[in-house]
Predict the structure.
Amino acid sequence: MIDIIPLKDLFKPVYGVNLELIHLEQCDKRVHDSIKFVSRTEKNNGVSAYVKRINGITPNPGHTISVAVSGSVLSSFYQEDEYYSGRDLYYLLPINEMTEKEMLFYAFCIRSNKYKYNYGRAANRTLKDILIPAEMPADFGIISLKEIPVPSSQRLLNKDIELKIENWKYFNLKKLFDITGTKTTSVLELEEYGNGQYPYVTTQATNNGIEAFYDYYTEEGNLLTMDSAVLGYCSYQPLAFSASDHVEKLIPKFQINKYIALFLVTVINKEQYHYNYGRKCSQTRMRKVKIKLPAKNGKPDFLFMENYIKSLPYSSSI
């Protein structure tokens, strides 16, 4: 069993350079004197922008972990290269030599403590005392970072497309999809089949709704699923899958592909503000939903939707 120890036994927390992005000159990351600006965001590895270096300002060192102690508290990321940072952001210097893999592991461990904090409870005083494993488990050591595929930022359609939302039209969800339930399958049932290639879709609003993969499925893929337990989280399921309770299917009445599906999922998820624990997104409510879409000749313009997604960065990696 691995011991649990305070963070300060493995890292030295240091307050970052504390710059304000509004006072810096933003630039493209390809500019020769550009440098990352890391803030308290929980997205994009903490990087908010690239800025030009300033003479006399020493950046935070590379091979450190950036940690937000307010805002998105404990958003923690491994930073390979030196960087500038904003307010309430610390960097962690390893006391002893650590590999990149170990730094990534500990960034994950620190993020796992996020549930203890919020916007009203910062981590500036307690960061050094957060409990983390004394060493990285052997299982993590066998992971090869070089084998993890890196998405290409290339886009499939090399042109910019304007959305022009003011020209869109409203369409009833039930006119676009057959809305029906899925067969409820429990984890206990699925464990009898063992791990496999088919997703197990639940009502969670993360990871495309997928909790695990098993060697069993009850539903065909290439359709949308929606959570009817609470918020109506919508996701695209390209593969055959099984599902937990309160997972509904939106079976398209038109020819769908992954690009059109991702466009529609984004639009449908904008409707979540209508729902909460006291007003769930039931099948009945789904059938009353109207969504605003690009239109041509009074019908949804699916070709526009497909081309728009293809025009976005990283579309070649979808």
